[in-house]
Amino acid sequence: MEDFKIYQASGMLTELVKDASDVRIKQKTITGNIAHFKIHAESPVKIIVDINTTGATSCKITKTGKNILENIMADGNLRGVDFAVNSDKTISASGQAIYNLDKPIYSKWPLTMLRGIHAFVSGIPENSPAGESIMLYYHNANNADVGNQNFYSDGGAMVIPESAIDASVTVNITRWTHVNNIISPQIEIGNHKTAYEEYKGISEIISWGDVAGSITAGTLTIEEDGSVTLETGGQTYTLTSISPIETYIGDNNIWSDAGEVSVTYQY
């Protein structure tokens, strides 16, 4: 079992710990307006985040689960096909499309965080008809379409047009296609498909401007037991509004929206 993996924005493996008794510390620095790390951990990890927000008025660090696509589809029949959202946010689809149809999963899905990051779209089950897909229609700031992509039963990588700021994510079924299956819509960071996981939302780890004021550099430490401290300007702040560290077990993404972030993971 591979216990601990870290991926950088390009999707490449940067560190691997195969044995829980093998203690290592690795550091990777990412610069730019958006920073991202993907973590896979089978047991709790200590996370140390060094923040330098020079040139930015604030910095927010957030966490998401593996699946970054929220499914907000409404139940109902569309052009001959019945759609029902299940408790785990998968979609039951049955019927024959009497016209081409697009059933929205998310109508204005934001793409800002995904600039320069490899992501993979999946959800249409194997042995599905050729006329069934998950489709992304990309929009620019004027809400005009600037491209689209279809993703069939084998899934595929996202290629975001430079001018796109959001996307309509839909289940697309062509006319006369008969379907009777369960769709598991998922967009995940990386270059390949993994098992479906329900969307877990976005959790804020820290909003730098709220805590540090005009301070532009400091160290955020998340201990294995979930306790969190921020050291900045010679002061140490204890933060209490952080989710328990156990929520980092499995596959998770950590995002920073500004400045330079250096992340050290201690296993």
Describe, in plain words, how this protein is organized in 3D.
The protein starts with a strand and ends with a strand. Mean pLDDT is about 80; it is low at about 10-35. It has about 270 residues and is an all-beta fold. A hairpin with a 2-residue loop joins strand 20 (about 230) and strand 21. Strands 2-1-4-22-6-18 form a six-stranded antiparallel β-sheet. It has one helix and 23 strands.
The strand count comes to 23
Strand order of the largest sheet: 2-1-4-22-6-18
Overall residue-averaged pLDDT value: 79
Morphology: elongated
Amount of helix: under 10%
Major sheet details: 6 strands, antiparallel
Radius of gyration over C-alpha positions, nearest whole angstrom: 20 Å
Which runs of at least 5 residues are low in confidence (pLDDT < 50)?
Answer: 8-34
| Broad structural category | mainly beta
Layout of secondary structure:
Blueprint: E1 4-7, E2 13-17, E3 25-30, E4 35-41, E5 46-52, E6 60-65, E7 76-78, E8 81-85, E9 91-96, E10 101-110, E11 119-122, E12 132-139, E13 145-151, E14 156-157, E15 166-173, E16 178-183, E17 186-189, E18 202-207, H1 208-212, E19 217-222, E20 228-232, E21 235-239, E22 250-256, E23 260-266
Antiparallel strand pairs: 1-2, 1-4, 3-23, 4-22, 5-19, 5-23, 6-18, 6-22, 7-8, 8-9, 9-16, 10-15, 11-14, 11-17, 12-13, 12-15, 19-20, 20-21
